[in-house]
Specification:
The chain has twelve helices and no strands. It is mainly α and 287 residues long. The longest helix has 26 residues. About 3% of the residues have low confidence.
Length: 287
């Protein structure tokens, strides 16, 4: 349970840091790349076992690390944009209510329980994503803004699903740091490729503040994944139950931070959406 609580704390901290990216005018892509380099280094330095870099491509989880690395850098970028444009609570709801996706795959792939209460919770989750994201005055720009929460919803769900699949089938208990470091390394590589194309189009200084921001982000990002994987290795909890507990904690804490720290304003629809998100995710956990 301690691993689950730590995952909630570090995941929430990521949302808060993203919000400050906008305040300090941080180049999101550059900071994300540095963040993954930091997480990659932490993973290899803190590896629980001795290893050879030459042997990594032959690890059974290697392809999974590549896939997750690509998804991580893509969805992390979307997460940052969503936090800046829609608010901390919206990014937590859109990202974390994606729990419905690994729940469905948990039922299909691992024969996990499915009841009427859990189905109701999943339906409430989908409705909540829209209500928490929509603005009162939907002009053309604001309608376009709904695309980011939708992408974040689907991408985050894919990450959780693949992470669980790789963890349960290929990652040994003493390989968590090595696996995490590897997927962060691939995320950094894909990020550098994107930055390379952007640099060809327009050259500009990397910026020391972007490096500092990336370092600050990299530490909680690394531990949020490591603690989540360790929590998933608990055989006493179904993955659907564990994901829901993890996600409701992040939604509640990040929403409170949005209200108290960033003074975010919420319309009636937004408030109903957040309430439905919490209700839906609790129903799934109870079920």
């Amino acid at each position: 349970m301690i691993y689950l609580l730590l995952s909630i704390v570090f995941s929430t901290l990521i949302f808060v840091i993203f919000k400050y990216f906008d305040v300090f005018k941080i180049d999101t892509l550059k900071a994300i790349i540095v963040n993954y380099i930091v997480a990659f280094i932490l993973g290899f330095v803190l590896a629980e076992i001795d290893f050879s870099v030459k042997e990594l491509p032959y690890q059974p989880w290697f392809l999974g690390a590549i896939t997750l690395g690509l998804l991580f850098v893509s969805i992390f970028f979307v997460m940052a944009l969503t936090a800046q444009r829609n608010g901390v609570s919206v990014v937590s709801v859109a990202g974390k209510m994606s729990v419905v996706i690994p729940i469905i795959f948990g039922v299909v792939l691992y024969d996990e329980s499915l009841s009427a209460i859990k189905i109701i919770g999943i339906i409430l989750a989908i409705v909540a994503v829209y209500l928490a994201s929509v603005k009162e005055d939907l002009n053309k720009h604001e309608k376009a803004g709904l695309v980011l929460p939708a992408i974040l919803f689907l991408g985050s769900g894919a990450i959780d699903t693949i992470l669980k699949f790789v963890e349960i089938n290929y990652v040994k208990e003493n390989e968590v740091s090595l696996f995490s470091g590897s997927l962060f390394g691939f995320a950094a590589l894909f990020g550098l490729l994107i930055l390379g194309f952007k640099t060809i189009q327009k050259r500009e200084a990397f910026g020391i503040k972007n490096v500092i921001a990336g370092i600050v982000l990299g530490v909680p990002n690394y531990y949020s994944i490591v603690f989540l994987i360790k929590a998933l290795q608990n055989k006493n909890l179904e993955s659907s139950t564990l994901f829901t507990i993890n996600n409701v904690g992040i939604v509640v804490v990040s929403t409170l931070i949005g209200l108290l720290l960033f003074k975010e304003s919420f319309s009636l629809k937004n408030k109903i959406g957040i309430a439905l998100a919490i209700t839906g995710i609790i129903l799934v956990a109870i079920a």
